[in-house]
Amino acid sequence: xxxVFLDTNIFIDVIHRKPEILASLEGHSISISPLSVHIxxxxxxxxxxxTRLQSQIRLFEIVDLNTKIVDKSTEGPTNDVEDNIxxxxxxxxxxxxxxxxxxxxxxxxxxxKVKIIDHL
Length: 120
Prior knowledge:
By secondary structure, the protein is an alpha/beta fold. The protein has helices at residues 8-17, 21-24, 34-43, 51-57, 67-73, 81-92, 103-106, and strands spanning 3-6, 29-32, 61-62, 97-99, 110-111, 114-117. It is globular. Residues 3-104 form the PIN domain.
């Protein structure tokens, strides 16, 4: 069993567009950033309460967004603070895998000990 972190694009796919992805994650511990929930709700203009979303996010461990993550994110590794928050959140959660569709992040290959890939 691996500890898998979902970048926002994969999180949105799992809960909104391609729920079949969730089957491929079965047996793994899955983490997300609270930013992913915010970005999803903002992008799709979701108004609370969102009962379906509330039940869906219980499938994931939400990594606390803290000062340490924010501070490190303002330093890199990319020039996009949101991407950096996602990456540093994965490290904070001791994840083995960072799952993303972001080509720029995929080019990194690894961030610390976290392997960056586009599918399991």
